[in-house]
Amino acid sequence: MKLADMLSYADISHLNNIASYYDCDCKRNSKHELIQSILIKAGRKEFLKEQWKSFSPGDLRFLNNLVFDTRSSYSLEDLLAAVRHTSLEEKSDETSGSKPARTALESPREAVSRYRRSGWLFNGFTSSTKYMFHVPEDLKERFREELSLHLKSGLQVSMPPEVYREEQGLITEDLKLMLRYFQEHELTLNAEGFMYRKQQQQLLSTLHIEESLITKGPWRFGYGRSCSEYPDRFALLYDYAVAQRWVQETPAGLTLTEHGKECILSGNQVSMIQLFRFWLKIYKSAVPNLPSLVYWLGRCAKEWVTMDSLHATVGSLVTPFYYDTPRMILERRIVKMLLHLGMLRLGESQTLGTVIRMTPLGIKAGEIAPQLGHGTVHNDNDVII
Fold first, then answer.
1. CB–CB of 31/15 below 8 Å?
2. What is the pTM of this model?
3. Are the C-beta atoms of 323 and 219 separated by less than 8 Å?
4. 100: left (phi over 0), alpha (psi -120 to 50) or beta
5. How far is 252 from 189, CA to CA, in rounded Å?
6. pLDDT digits (tens, 9 = 90+) for 319-360
7. How many Å apart are CA 325 and CA 334, to the nearest integer?
8. DSSP of 143-211, one letter per residue?
């Protein structure tokens, strides 16, 4: 539903709160005048630009999550959890001595009440939906347009670098190489259920992209079941093979299943769309708004742009995850993995440092990432990337 429809169903006390929030000049006991006054205020071209000045980083992250969420309604618990997640960075700013942003001073319930007073959230109008919250569809679209302009205005465009790295097609080839390795070698598992480091090293050396083994450091978790012991790219391939039931973990070691053998013998190309969807799924526990971040990278990096400017713009929508800072998440968990998926090119400029550009595949993937990430695309055959 659009804003006008939701206003017509809202009770007069809610309309009065919205009118007061935007300082509307109208009779407060007339529902018709309240609605007209709010619509005139919200319909102005400058409406979102003026709001933008008062938005905190937490507001932008919270609203960005909402406008890309395909659900039509939210429970109070859904909204409280979203506020807690998107305000994490601002809470950490308080300890650094910097001035805390507004959402850091609010409780999650107070923040939800503020979004309701500002016309971003409305209760349902039936007995079964009155305790659920809804966002006007036209406000969602306008927010996306304004955020797009805001992000692009902060980008620094670069000339093409002399040398850049691209891995398009290599990850699916390495998945097949990994399955063949499992078929040709007897692999035992340690007490924790993972391959021994020597076996890992031998297997990684057979792949097109060789990664370093995991070294001791902060506890690794949140990016798939095997990310604690295996390098990022290999962990994704391994977890995907297990999820597809191509590989089976037994007390005796790793074995290739009949499905895995059929995958090798068939010679069919591994579905890139399924692998991309799987990456979105397992990384969303640590980066809940990952689909929208991939969408914005697809929109912002159609040309060569600097990593520093991307961190200052798109990176502002990232919240930290335990040991991972927003910059680490953007560079290691998103940009690096998109490089491995063949959706991004990574280069070095002598004057501007690291620069990136999405590939045509990455731009197409960015457009459908929100639908894939929220499960609204059910048939991969209908999607071409």
1. yes
2. 0.90
3. yes
4. beta
5. 8
6. 999 989 999 999 999 999 999 999 999 999 999 999 999 999
7. 13
8. HHHHHHHHHHHT--B-PPPSSEE--TTHHHHHHHHHHHHHHHS-B-B-TTS-B-HHHHHHHHTTSSS--
